[in-house]
Amino acid sequence: MAKKLVEFSPDYAVIPGESLKEFLEFSGMSLKEFSLRTGLTQQSIIRIIKGEQPITPDTANRFELVTGTPARFWNNLESQYQEQLAKLREKERLEGETEWLKIIPFKELVLRKLVEPSAETFSRVRECLKFFGVSDVSGWHEIWQSPEVAPRRSSCFDANPGAAATWIRIGELQAAKISCQAFNKSRFKEALNKIRTLTREEPAVFIPEMTALCAEAGVALALVKEFPKVPWSGASRWLSPEKAMILLNLRGKSNDLFWFSFFHEAGHILNDSKKDLFINSGDKTNPIEVRADKFAAEMLIPEKYNARISRLKSIAEVHAVAKELEISPGIVVGRFQFLTHKFKLFNSLKTRFVWS
Fold it and tell me: I want to staple 178 with a disulfide (CB 3.0 to 4.6 A). Which of 119, 220, 227, 318 is the partner?
């Protein structure tokens, strides 16, 4: 039966001088004689034995000539000692970050295989820091919660900053793997018109096509599964001056909501600041979000169709309007329900998306 190997991580560091002490005892060489042979002072040798002075490459070379043990052995001892000391200091530092860990959805990250599971607080904190690409919790706060950043993000971020940052970070990591051309506003507008017609296609068709169209215009499209109890359907931000990201999930699952979220975020990319982080939470009090809503609505179905759509009586009429507009019938149904508040009528025409 195969057995899983467990990495040994000692909670102590072995001083390199222990090996030197063993050599002196085994060889019977006195400290004075060893000092004369190596050209080092007795005080230096004592400090090395106690771990108070490091073994330098020059010292290692001297030890090789006297002991017959290769210099690389002594260099490796010192390197391993310093590395273990650093790990112990790091462990002590990170074990105090239990409060920060409470706001990070660690279990969800484990389920998605983005971090390694661990029962130790230190290891969990370290895994999360590595996931976010920061070396300490203060760095995380500087990037995600500092006063300088706060005015440039959506207000809903502060309701659940840990989950928001985690979801967005997954999107960033996914978007980083997408090769994009430098952002071109005109090309992105053209891409949006082409993508609009893809609303009639199945995900297996429209996802690769819209991803490619966005990438050619300088926008990385990331699809990241929604987090439990977090009511966000999309987000957008600039990853660099020449590359933007649109991040989507399947909140609500129906195709009309998915496509509205996409064009809402596209509106932010085209019309709003490159410094801002936008999260689509359905906020109707923020004028910037309202403008993005209007952009999405007009892109999908121009306002002049509203009166006609609000009078739809049959499935055949829905299909007729969808064909005329060259969009999915589900999007027409979504506009009809928004206008009339008849949220159950024509629901069979909506497509439900699920994660594969």
Answer: 220
